[in-house]
Amino acid sequence: MTNAITQFPTLESVTRPTVDTAAAAYYLNRRPQTLRCWAVYQDGAVNPIRISGRLAWPVADIKRVLGVA
Fold first, then answer.
1. Strands (E), 1-69
2. Predicted pLDDT of residue 3
3. Residue-level pLDDT at 18
4. How far is CA 46 from the centre of its chain?
5. I need a labelling partner for 31 at 20 to 30 A (CA). Which of 5, 15, 44, 45 fits?
6. What is the pLDDT at residue 63?
7. Residue 1 banded pLDDT, cuts 50, 70, 90
8. CA distance linking residue 17 with residue 31, whole number of Å
């Protein structure tokens, strides 16, 4: 089993504009299924964009919600 600390870099070091659901859930301290519900009902703290049918979570929005520069 992979340790989450080694699997995901710190949020401050992420340079990509979006992250996948697993990473977003880790940074937001939520379960991935919670984020999928946010996507379906469009009522979460962060709204994803869809890229080829997959969910992509904007890093800038995650940082805004968490109060990180």
1. 18-19, 49-51, 54-58
2. 60
3. 98
4. 8
5. 15
6. 97
7. low
8. 21
Decide: helix, strand or coil at residue 37.
helix
Sequence ranges of the domains in the chain:
31-69
Tell me which residue of 68, 67, 47, 65 sits closest to 56, measured CA to CA: 47
Both tokens assigned to 31: 């379960």
Distances (CA, A) of 45 to 7, 22, 41, 52, 63: 23, 16, 12, 22, 11
The separation between CA 2 and the C-alpha centre of its own chain, rounded to angstroms, equals 18
Report the alpha-carbon distance of residue 64 to residue 7 in Å, rounded: 22
Token pair 């709204």: residue: 47
Q: Are 58 and 17 in contact (CB under 8 A)?
A: yes
> Is the model's pLDDT at 4 over the cut of 70?
no
Place of tokens 């009522």: 43
